[in-house]
Amino acid sequence: MLAGPYATMMLADLGAEVTKLEPMGGDISRQVGDSYFASLNRGKRSISIDLTTVRGQDQLGELVMDAHALLVNLKPSAIHRLGLTYAALRRWNERIVCVAITGFGLNAGDDPAFDYVIQAATGIAALTGDPSGPPTLPGYSSADNSTGLTAALGLLAQVVSGVGGQVEVSLRDVMLSQLNYHASAYLNDGTVPQRRPFGAHTYYVPAQIFPTADGYLALFITHDGFWRRFAEEAAVDGFATMAERASRREEVLAAVATALAADTATGWESRLRPLGIPAAAVRTLPEALDATPEALVHAGRHRLVGSPIRIAGYEPAYGPPPRLGEHNG
Questions:
Q1: Where would a tag sit more exposed on the chain, N or C end, judged by fewer CB atoms within 10 A?
Q2: Where are the transmembrane segments (predicted)?
């Protein structure tokens, strides 16, 4: 519902002609709502096709003959059954790149693998939330979105190689990959990652969310230069080196929390940012969108967040999401 459509929307924003193949009843995401569908499918064409029929398979072949790539986001059994692999489609086009987004791998079975399930299964939920509370899921589809971007990268890499073939990207593998330094610490040093209050970073101190006189502030001090500037502005003494701050974590956090209680989150943001210190008041999504009008675009009648990729001399053409079967020949 999300990973595949997001991957191909990123490609459409970059100028690719993307044709969305939908079952005769339409992509299930159309049932969620117009704004949901638009947020993942702007600028695409839509062809409704019944791949279970001979006619549908012939239509697929005709599309494959002139295509660089096919990206599919279905259960592995459906991908194989409907002939959506390179092995099945190379007869139409030797250079076609076939990308399969699945939960656990193209040959790993059909266990359900929605975003939240993967976050639970790969350790993301266990690392999120307050240590005294239950595991928590992030408030957006991080596994789906990350997998979509990874799939788009894999697709482009194989297209650029000039050789057709099968590319696999699974939600599980993407999220394990994104736990990079946590996984490395465990695999090489036996260090089990801890869930820390206020989302505190494992290595950097202070690097977390802090309460202030009004609102919350995210502060991310990664080196001694940041610390010197912060300490001077906030009147905090000591803890001059990264190693000392890490070894005296609780003392540092207490001192910083006391200092930050003297001003509001937005007040600290306005004081620290001119000093080059990474800090931001915690905002709601409406507040963040209101503050960044340059990130918003129109796609037909929908207002959406535009592509995050900026290319000199290129402006994306943000077309509206397609009607079901709008481009049937």
A1: C
A2: none
Which of 144, 189, 237, 290 is catalytic? The answer is: 144
Q: Residue 108: what pLDDT?
A: 93
Question: Helices 171-178 and 180-189 meet at what angle, rounded to 10?
Answer: 70
d(CA 103, CA 89): 22
- 32 and 58 assigned to the same domain: yes
Residue 144 annotated as catalytic: yes
Please check whether residues 123 and 201 belong to one and the same domain. no
Q: Please give the single-letter amino acid code of residue 104.
A: F
Give residue 273's identity as a one-letter amino acid code.
R
Residue 292 lies in a domain: no
Mean pLDDT value across residues 123-144: 95
Mean residue pLDDT of the chain comes to: 97
Nearest to 237 by CA among 254, 220, 216, 222: 254
Q: For residues 227 and 159, give the distance between their C-alpha atoms in angstroms, rounded to a whole number.
A: 45
Helices (H) and strands (E) in the chain, counts: 14, 10
145 and 18 in a common domain: yes
DSSP 8-state class, residue 264:
-
**Can you spell out the DSSP letters for 200-244?**
--SSSSSEEEEE-SSSEEEEE--SHHHHHHHHHHHT-----SHHH
Same domain, 68 and 214: no
Residues 143 and 169 in one domain: yes
User: 86 pLDDT band (50/70/90 cuts)?
Assistant: very high
Residue 48 shares a structural domain with residue 163: yes
Is residue 272 within 8 A of residue 230, CB to CB? The reply is yes
The pair of three-digit structure tokens given for residue 204, joined into one six-digit string: 């950097």
What pTM value is reported for the model?
0.94
% of the chain exceeding 70 in pLDDT: 100
Is pLDDT above 90 for 1? no
Kindly tell me if the per-residue pLDDT of 329 is higher than 90. Answer: no
